[in-house]
Amino acid sequence: MRLKKLVIGLVLCLGPGFISQADDDSSAPAMDTYNKAVRLYEAHNWDAAREYFHQYLAEYSDTPLYVTCLYYLAYCYQELGDSEQAILLYHKVIDMAQGPDAFWADMAQKRIDELVESD
Question: Most buried residue, 7, 13, 18, 55, by most Cβ within 10 Å?
Answer without folding.
Answer: 55
